[in-house]
Amino acid sequence: MPRRSSIPKGPVVYCAMGKQGHHRTVEDLERKSEPESPPETAGVKERMAYRLKTATGREIYKKRKETIEPAFGIIKSILGFDQFLMRGLEKVSIEWDLVTLAYNVKRFYRMTGGRLMRPPVKV
Length: 123
Hints:
Elements: H1 26-29, H2 44-53, H3 55-67, H4 69-77, H5 89-112
């Protein structure tokens, strides 16, 4: 029987293993040494916890706050989309496409100040 490789195939996942508070302590700000790697027999949770404690893992996971979460917050609070109105995967997919289209048009309008949305004025 061939031995399974410990090198993951596909994307490497960085998933939260618990709640993280908003306020940092002095201990959080101190430089931390790299944690010991888990044993070969470690389960999925132990390997994920190790991955998140490494310096690389902390940097990668920190980007999530900058890129993903603000978009969902804007969609929920500004656009007022907090639940799907349709049922079924195909209809929900279409509804989500409309929501993301509205989000992107709003961003485009704000980024350009509405200049590129208006037809050119003929003199």
